[in-house]
Design a protein that fits this description.
This protein has a two-stranded antiparallel sheet. The longest helix has 7 residues. By secondary structure, the protein is an alpha+beta fold. The protein has 3 helices and 2 strands. Helix content is 16%, strand content 6%.
């Protein structure tokens, strides 16, 4: 068991004494503490207490850090189907027409 609660840890270290009822446990919940807690674990929490990975269905909505020079595409445009290369918007005009 790598964890204990804060009450038991402080009791074993002699941080307090219970003169009134030493055999009666206090009510409520105590904070869970890792036995191997150290400054290194606190400063590098992402190494020792890694967060779960993002679910597959949610990954496209997350901001991923891009490397230098990489293009980022908005998540709403990633699955967009673009028109073919010969597709043009608008209508064709007559060749002899000018704006003058």
């Amino acid at each position: 068991n790598l964890t204990t609660n804060l009450y038991d840890k402080m009791s074993k270290e002699g941080k307090f004494r219970d003169y009134v009822a030493p055999k009666v446990r206090p009510s409520g919940r105590s904070i869970q503490v890792h036995l191997a807690d150290s400054v290194e674990r606190d400063l590098q929490s992402e190494v020792y207490f890694a967060l779960p990975s993002t679910p597959v269905g949610e990954r496209r909505f997350r901001n991923l850090s891009m490397g230098p020079g990489e293009m980022s595409i908005h998540w709403g445009l990633k699955e967009q189907k673009l028109p073919s290369a010969d597709f043009r918007y608008g209508s064709r005009s007559y060749k002899g027409t000018t704006t003058e």
